[in-house]
Amino acid sequence: MKRKEVGILSLLVFLCVIVAVKNPQFLSATNLQNMGRLVGMFGIFSIGAGMVIITGGIDLSVGSVFALLGILLSMMLTEWHWSAAFTMAVIIGIGTAIGFVHGILITRLRLQPFIVTLCGLLLYRGIARYIAEDTTKGFGAQGFAWLRSFATGSAAGIPMPFVLLVLVAVVMGIVLHFSIYGRYLVAVGRNAEAARYSGINSDNVITGAYVISGGLAGVAAILLAFYTNSISPSSHGNFYELYAIAAAVLGGCSLRGGEGSIAGILIGTALLQVLRNLVNLLDIPGSLDFAVMGAVILLGVIADQIFRPAVKANKNRT
Amino acid sequence: MTAILQIERVSKSFPGVKALDSVSLSVASGEILALVGENGAGKSTLMKILAGIHRPDSGTIRIEDQAVVLRSPRDAAGYRIAVIHQELELIDTLDVAANVFLGREPTWGGPAKLLDSRRIWLEADKILARLGSPFSSRMRVSELSLAHKQMVEIARALSLNARIILMDEPTSSLTTGETERLLSLIEELKRDRVSIIYISHRLAEVQRVADRVVVLRDGKNAGELRDSEITHDRMIQLMVGRDLKAPAPDAGMPSGHRQVSFEIQKFRTTAYPNEEVSIAVHEGEILGIAGLVGAGRSELARAIFGVEKALSGTVATSGTALSIKSAHDAIDYGIYLVPEDRRELGLITGMTVKENITLPSLRRHTVNGLIRNTRETDAAKQSCEALHIKTPTIDTRVENLSGGNQQKVVLAKWLSMSPKLIVFDEPTRGIDVGAKSEIYNIMRSLADQGVAIMMISSDMEEILANSDRVAVMREGRVTGILDRSECTEEAIMRLAVA
């Protein structure tokens, strides 16, 4: 593990110990299970965001994608009565297709990732509200047990989303750290032009990252929809893209590209969820939720910059 | 005429090279002095010293008999010295007037320092009118042609009230008509008693405008010509007049015995859209590509390798045209490029020596699509040993290696595959002498194995010592191909300069 990941892991452990001491509820089975569920769902799409960040890009659209796909999911199941398996495939397919379109716009038309996905953020939210006629959709209290179990069920006491995250993390860990594609991804993120001079099709590599991000957003959309069980098109998934970006960056992905690891992204995700949990458990007013998160992340980043070994700091500047 | 600027015994060294060795020259007010010399003769260094970018190790600079120290470009401007660099330094997104007055914008006064745009435009237009410019100062610079951009630089120099204007290759990217306009502009400036130091490889232009020519060779004064002495031949003689070791006669086979291995057919590049290049490269030879910087050699190399779109042209081998649309295609055909810009294009800094070496050949080190660390490590270690790459470990980041070892890493990327044609672009730039000869040896042994090699180089000794044949390029076309027996520095320079 790299130094940066060790640093953020220490911060995570430190916070856990503090909260556990101040409020033993933190270690209760219910709390741990609930947090595991959230870490599972957020981790899945944060890994996608991390892939995109490693290319030097960014994906701002995921929050709105959750709203759009959540609304569609509800309509497909409750209004159009499609089968569960088929619906799941279609939802993940749409997520993947959205990522593919982003990738094509960014690599073929040379549009900036920020602009493309910002427009996506606005566009998908708007479409979601329109097709839902701005009404909240849901799945009812009963039914769809199979799909629902992925979000709310447990396997041997471990929340299903967490199990899924472990699966996704293992697969993506192999892809990023042991496959040719992963090596190309890092090379392109470092220097797309030099990668091209080595015979790498940089455009396809970058598009691939957006496809992965879109596909994982599709998976996460299903889990989030069933977890909340009601999807308000104007607020469902709001700011979630920022959670994903924060998790990836906290975990060592550089916004300049070419750097990042799956382990880091997982630690970053866990840290964010512990922070949200901490606000609850330490009786901090809920309205301070975001402020606490912002302050702790900022302090972490400042500490990282200050305690960075001198040699390395010089290297980065040149 | 009294000298306005005198340079006395100025020397400047950079690590490994003595760029200027006790160079002296003077310029009178209203004089046009041309500074000529081969690539690396020290012209640019001298200019950067006058621009305040570099400081001389020794020697004095006098302006109107006062010794001065130029610590920064601001100092140089203070002495009314203006420099027009070869790569124009304009901000494309601003308008002409803003560029002319950049850093010295007229304001309305007061603490807010609000820009007085009207005055900026008016003043700029006045200067432009003096230059006979056809465009207004409100044009965005990005909309101007290169020649007009150059005019903006000159306007900027005039707005500084410059007494001395240095121009580095000002016509290198201009058309004939534009060049003509620039030259008459220079003659007008002369009438206004502005002194010009004109650096150019185009001897015909020098002959036309220069009152006096100072020739530099290997960082030293090589001679001075004035008025009727300024002829094409005299200038070349002074530029070249150096004893070079005669090329070793036994290096390589005579080219007549070799098979043509690759034919570069009718290439046109964006740098010179109206010129076509056709060259044949034989297997087992080192074909030197000589020429001045900017002759279109690197563009050709990039087009052959498929990383830059050629306007037309094909690479053919044994009669069949290859379809090369990307570097990936070229690599599949065994055509590799060792690019000029090692750190930005040859290597991926931030990645390790191992990762860089195996990047183009990763597929060989995989099992079921996953990289096998042991295989990759073994391959990288083998390459390091074969090429004597000195690195603490193969997991060291590549930017921590010396220039020579970095270049060997670039070579290692390609040598583990099966090269058929390798294009080297300035293979030893910025590399120390020891590593240089190692790289020459590697090139020669590749050629001996039958690989066709094209070696683009601006280093005359490198060309003469290593090439089996030399193709000389000038302004986007091949002006001559010399066999080993005909290869002399003078013959090459005659073909390289207009």
Please characterize this protein's 3D structure.
The complex is a heterodimer of chains A (about 325) and B (about 500). Chain A is an all-alpha fold and about 325 residues long. Chain A contains 14 helices and four strands. In chain A, the strands form two sheets. Chain A has a two-stranded antiparallel sheet. A two-stranded antiparallel ribbon of chain A has the order 2-3. In chain A, strand 2 (about 155) and strand 3 (about 160) form a beta hairpin. In chain B, the strands form five sheets. A six-stranded mixed sheet of chain B has the order 6-7-8-3-9-10, sandwiched between helices. Chain B starts with a strand and ends with a helix. Chain B is built from 17 helices and 22 strands. Classes of the chains: A mainly alpha (about 325), B alpha/beta (about 500). Chains A and B meet through helix 8 and helix 9 of A and helix 10, helix 11 and strand 18 of B.
